Amino acid sequence: MRQDSLQKVIRAYHFFKANIDNEISLNNIAINTGWKISSVKTYYSKKWAGIFLEINNGVYLICMPDDLTENQFIQHHSQVDEAVKI
User: What is the pLDDT of residue 83?
Assistant: First the structure.
């Protein structure tokens, strides 16, 4: 994983961790990670299914497991073919 991509993944992890049980928007994630909104939408559908859930139109609830470590999140995020279910 490239260094800039790794830094965005780490920022995403810490943003999610700090916002467990909070409602957010995809735009909040884009602003806090540096990814474009299109990338955030892609990651939501391909990587983050167990991290947060859409509870209303454009409103998402962070439900990342409390015990998920930064290294596990990075490992999960860097999976190419088959992502580990969180």
Answer: 46
Burial class (CB in 10 A: 0-12, 13-18, 19+), 80: exposed
Give the list of residues 6+ apart from residue 48 with CB closer than 8 angstroms, or none. Answer: none
The dihedrals phi and psi of 52, each to the nearest 5 degrees, come to -150, 155
| CA 65 centroid distance within chain | 12
Assign 3-class secondary structure to 3-64: HHHHHHHHHHHHHHHHCCCCEECHHHHHHHHCCCHHHHHHHHHHCCCCCEEEEECCEEEECC
pTM, two decimal places: 0.85
pLDDT tens sequence across 41-63: 999 988 888 899 999 999 999 99
Q: Are 57 and 19 in contact (CB under 8 A)?
A: no
